[in-house]
Amino acid sequence: MGLTNNLAEIETDFIVLGYTKNEEWEKFIVGEDYEAFLLTKKENKN
What we know:
The protein is of the alpha+beta class. The protein has helices spanning 2-5, 7-10, and strands at residues 14-19, 25-27, 36-41.
């Protein structure tokens, strides 16, 4: 999947969460099955 292939680069700017079958958001784990994904932009702390 494209998300997994580019995860290191994506995580430099975004927090990546996965929505589980138990209807909970959790930090994205490679190899887990998710119903949906949520990316939120990290705050820039300059």
